[in-house]
């Protein structure tokens, strides 16, 4: 027979009692609430939300997406440590930016000399495959960011460089010369630094701390190559 | 009455007892390496593993042996398998790069720095940086050489980036493949040869290309003598790195075969650097030519007008 050396709530009794014998004497006092309800209070509202986006006008849908994209542009232009870009990622912004950049960077197809600037497809491929490679690299190094979140951040942080491209295009309408080049160089360098700072602010936290430099260097190379393409753009 | 023995927890912490209960189980233990499944996919380690550890007298050869066996246990179609090739920290990559820049005679790069942890991060990103360094430097150098000419119109020469990428990546992957195949073949004939795994050879080649990045940037200087001195320095450093890595591997072999292998390795390396210099960078004497072609036009125009 089992003998308990000491039973709970009964220190120092001489008589041995079997284990758990006192359990039936325990009663739950009434002031500990042990009952409740399991409901999801938001449930009915979510269902209403779903059906309402189906019936709304096309303008509302487009405006909502455009506002989300615009909000993320603001986050890139004023990079703070927020995770709006990460939480509500979308790829519309990167697509718009990449298409704009590629359209402005492509060389004139009527003047297709052998060694000119990049074609539309080349810019597109560099941007998207570069972003995919950097994402794969950071995941392989052990980062805990998801694939599309990383693509989203890298795509959105091309915004300063697209602005630089627009400015360079405008500056190139003036007379060519060293002053022209200096202005473009300055603008591209500033926007390059801005892109790096913005993307590092979003991406650096997701890496293990002893590999942060390894994950950030490819981002630096990526934006450097894009800046080089912008700087060396010459209208035919 | 309940027996106390029935209520005791079963101890799971001891691998030995659970293995005696079930000998085929795979146990994972934090302190010691556990049993890993023997049917690993063909990671080309080869039978040379024990021999090279004995030959080169590494004092933590036990640890590297066991760690090497423990590492690649995921099947090759999972993501974790490829993550094992990126298992390096920042300081390790910097150490490997420093080791490739300062080859010390007698120190084997693979044994000293790679230590059974070959990574693909270094080779891949060093090659990517080198591709863009060569293309951008070549473009800049051509621009500076032809700067004063009236007939010169600057073009970004974007096509050269894809050509450079093809050349560099083909060199960094196909030459190690050929070398690994050759070493495996000799290993089957001469039993004492130290053989490296394919990834270690890729790793050595990748890190040996690092010296060409500052070399490519310095090739912008449009002086022929400076460029050739840079070629010699870079070839000296990376060639000696490769030689010191592969000499222990072919030392046991027939003298002529060993020498031929080393000479081929260095020759291919030289071919890469000289080829890149010749293709991407215009010769600096070209700026003299357009002034001589300009003057005949002027004389013809003067003759026509008179």
TrEMBL record, chain B:
Keyword line: Membrane, Transmembrane, Transmembrane helix
Primary residence: Golgi
GO terms for cellular component: Golgi medial cisterna; Golgi membrane; Golgi trans cisterna; late endosome membrane; nucleoplasm; plasma membrane; trans-Golgi network; transport vesicle
TM stretches of this protein: 120-141, 161-185, 197-222, 228-250, 257-281
Region (Disordered): 14-62
Topology relative to the membrane: Multi-pass membrane protein
Biased composition annotated in UniProt, kind: Polar residues: 15-29
Subcellular location: Golgi apparatus membrane; Golgi apparatus, cis-Golgi network membrane; Golgi apparatus, trans-Golgi network membrane; Late endosome membrane
Pfam family, one: Yip1
Residue ranges of every copy of the Yip1 domain listed in the record: 101-273
InterPro entries: Yip1_dom (IPR006977), Yip5/YIPF1/YIPF2 (IPR039765)
A GO molecular function held by the record: small GTPase binding
Acidic residues bias (residue ranges): 50-59
Annotated GO biological process: vesicle-mediated transport
Family: Belongs to the YIP1 family.
Name of the protein: Protein YIPF
Organism: Pan paniscus
Gene that this polypeptide is encoded by: YIPF1
């Amino acid at each position: 027979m089992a003998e308990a050396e000491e039973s709970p709530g009964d220190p120092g009794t001489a008589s041995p009692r079997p284990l758990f014998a006192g359990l039936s004497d325990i009663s739950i006092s009434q002031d500990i609430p042990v009952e409740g309800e399991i409901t999801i209070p938001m449930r009915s509202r979510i269902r209403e939300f779903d059906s309402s986006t189906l019936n709304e006008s096309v303008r509302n849908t487009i405006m909502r997406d455009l506002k989300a994209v615009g909000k993320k542009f603001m986050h890139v232009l004023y990079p703070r440590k927020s995770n709006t870009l990460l939480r509500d990622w979308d790829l519309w912004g990167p697509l718009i930016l990449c298409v704009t950049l590629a359209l402005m960077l492509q060389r004139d197809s009527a003047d297709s000399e052998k060694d000119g600037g990049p074609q539309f497809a080349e810019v597109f491929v560099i941007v998207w495959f570069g972003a995919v490679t950097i994402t794969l690299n950071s995941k392989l190094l052990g980062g805990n960011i998801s694939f599309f979140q990383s693509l989203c951040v890298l795509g959105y942080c091309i915004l300063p460089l697209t602005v630089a491209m627009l400015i360079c295009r405008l500056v190139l309408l003036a007379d060519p010369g060293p002053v022209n080049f200096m202005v473009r160089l300055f603008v591209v360098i500033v926007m390059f630094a801005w892109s790096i700072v913005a993307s590092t602010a979003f991406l650096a936290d997701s890496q293990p701390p002893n590999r942060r430099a390894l994950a950030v260097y490819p981002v630096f190379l990526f934006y450097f190559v894009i800046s080089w393409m912008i700087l060396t753009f010459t209208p035919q | 009455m309940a027996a106390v023995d029935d209520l005791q927890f079963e101890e799971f912490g001891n691998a030995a007892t659970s293995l005696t209960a079930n000998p085929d189980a795979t146990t994972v233990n934090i302190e010691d390496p556990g049993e890993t499944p023997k049917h690993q996919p063909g990671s080309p380690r080869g039978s040379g593993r024990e021999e090279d550890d004995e030959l080169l007298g590494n004092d933590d050869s036990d640890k590297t042996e066991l760690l090497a066996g423990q590492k690649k246990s995921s099947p090759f179609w999972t993501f974790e398998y490829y993550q094992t090739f990126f298992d390096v920290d920042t300081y390790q990559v910097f150490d490997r790069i420093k080791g490739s820049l300062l080859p010390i005679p007698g120190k084997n790069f693979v044994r000293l720095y790679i230590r059974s942890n070959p990574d693909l991060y270094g080779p891949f990103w060093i090659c990517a940086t080198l591709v863009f360094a060569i293309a951008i430097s070549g473009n800049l150098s051509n621009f500076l050489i032809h700067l004063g000419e009236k007939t010169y119109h600057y073009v970004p020469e974007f096509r050269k980036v894809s050509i450079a990428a093809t050349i560099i990546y083909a060199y960094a992957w196909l030459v190690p493949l050929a070398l690994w195949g050759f070493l495996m073949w000799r290993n089957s004939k001469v039993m004492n040869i130290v053989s490296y795994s394919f990834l270690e050879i890729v790793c050595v080649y990748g890190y040996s290309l690092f010296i060409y990045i500052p070399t490519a940037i310095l090739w912008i200087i449009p002086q022929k003598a400076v460029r050739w001195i840079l070629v010699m320095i870079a070839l000296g450093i990376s060639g000696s790195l490769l030689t010191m890595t592969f000499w222990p591997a072919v030392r046991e072999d027939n003298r002529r075969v060993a020498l031929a292998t080393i000479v081929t390795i260095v020759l291919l390396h030289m071919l890469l650097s000289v080829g890149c210099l010749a293709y991407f960078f215009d010769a600096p004497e070209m700026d003299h030519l357009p002034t001589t072609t300009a003057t005949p036009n002027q004389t013809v125009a003067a003759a026509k007008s008179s």
